Amino acid sequence: MVGSVGRGVMALVGVERGDGVAEAVALGRKMAELRLFEDAEGRTNLDTAAVGGGFLVVSQFTLAASLVKGRRPSFNGAAPPAEAEPLVERVMAELRERGYEVEGGRFGAAMEVELINDGPVTFVLDVREGRVVR
């Protein structure tokens, strides 16, 4: 096992061509501040810190896939590994700077990833120029 998280967030992070440090910082900040966990009244009012949670960050270039043409996904939109890896590391650093325990996978490795989703709660965060657009 390379990384794990108990209570907390598993984040699949895909880096696209044109993404930079600003997007990595914005993503880390947004992830740190999201109120995803229920309070005593059952409302999603608690952030990951409030529940003593951490983050498992897994690089996932397939999130940049295009399925527009044909039946085979195109990964042309994914950033090259030399550009993507430092940005995934920057997302993790942003979370650590905010006091979170953060673990990651092995960049570029074929991995078996296991998830138990308590919810189901799944969000897509797409940041451009520091704004969450979706």
Please give a structural write-up.
The protein is α/β, with parallel strands linked by helices. It has helices spanning 21-33, 81-97, and strands spanning 8-13, 35-38, 44-47, 54-59, 102-104, 127-128, 131-132. Strands 1-4-5 form a 3-stranded parallel β-sheet, with helices on one face. Helix 2 links the parallel strand 4 and strand 5. Helix 1 (21-33) packs parallel to helix 2 (81-97). The protein starts with 7 loop residues before the first strand and ends with a strand.
Summarize this structure briefly.
This protein has 134 residues and is of the alpha/beta class.
For this entry, give a set of tags.
134 residues, alpha/beta, 2 helices, 7 strands
SSE diagram, text form:
Elements: E1 8-13, H1 21-33, E2 35-38, E3 44-47, E4 54-59, H2 81-97, E5 102-104, E6 127-128, E7 131-132
Parallel strand pairs: 1-4, 4-5
Antiparallel strand pairs: 2-3, 6-7
Helix pairs in contact: 1-2
- With strands numbered from the N-terminus, the spatial order across the biggest sheet is 1-4-5
- Which structural class do the helices and strands define? alpha/beta
Global mean pLDDT: 89
Largest sheet: 3 strands, parallel
The count of strands amounts to 7
Gross morphology:
globular
N/C terminus separation? 32 Å
Helix content: 10-25%
Determine the number of helices (DSSP H or I, runs of at least 4 residues): 2
What is the element string, with H for helices and E for strands?
EHEEEHEEE
The Rg value, from CA coordinates, equals 15 Å
Kindly estimate the percentage of residues that lie in beta strands according to DSSP.
15-25%
- What ranges have pLDDT less than 50 throughout 5 or more consecutive residues? none
